[in-house]
């Protein structure tokens, strides 16, 4: 923040969107520049995997996903467990979450089976993969099974065009490597498959949230999940969306 442009006393209220990111240096630089202003943070995913303290005094209001669904602001979620067991016990953790390369190695032997399962469901699909190369491979597999699929990543210069084509029906599925997990509004998404497993409840909620928007003719979001097996790690799963804490989630899943 330029002090010559914004005097420290100029504003009495600082509003921070996506405030789960407010512990980052860039956010703190702005927040701390206005020491006497009230700070209001808003986010749909208040959890931080690194447990860093956010620069806010208290929670003023909490509106949970389950309540939003009950009050018909978001669509219901139907979770379906695919008959595919994947051992991720050897996946390493770095910076509080799973390493993409290790996840990729764990799921690669099962891509054909997963692609077949996805292709049998007549939905508007969104698939999350750990790496760009794997997203491209999944795109080829789904197309070979007859599902009109396209890949996009951070280097794609036609993302908005692809999304419009997807919404118009030119594509049935978009594969991506964690590009579309935040700040994207595609209400017609009716099925999400997340193969980029995570320990972060916030990241998982963001991924699933891409499919919870209301849309004409859409009755629910179908959430396809493989049986990811690990005795070492706690992996976010559909129960993570309904539970308020990790302890409640473990109770719900019988872990």
Fill in the keyword field for this structure:
six-stranded parallel β-sheet; two-stranded parallel ribbon; 10 strands; 9 helices; 255 residues; disordered C terminus; alpha/beta
List the helices and strands and how they pair.
Layout: E1 13-17, H1 25-33, E2 38-42, H2 65-70, E3 77-87, E4 93-94, E5 97-98, H3 100-107, H4 111-119, E6 125-128, H5 132-144, E7 149-152, H6 159-168, E8 173-176, E9 191-194, H7 201-209, E10 221-229, H8 239-242, H9 246-253
Parallel strand pairs: 1-2, 3-10, 6-8, 6-9, 7-8, 9-10
Antiparallel strand pairs: 4-5
| Fraction of helical residues | 25-40%
Largest β sheet strand count, sense and barrel closure: 6 strands, parallel
Q: Note the overall shape.
A: globular
- Spatial strand sequence of the major β-sheet: 3-10-9-6-8-7
* Estimated structural class: alpha/beta
Helices, by number, come to 9
Q: Looking at the chains present, what oligomeric state does this protein adopt? A: single chain
The ordered H/E elements are EHEHEEEHHEHEHEEHEHH
Q: Would you identify the regions where 5 or more consecutive residues have pLDDT less than 50?
A: 248-255
Distance between the termini: 47 Å
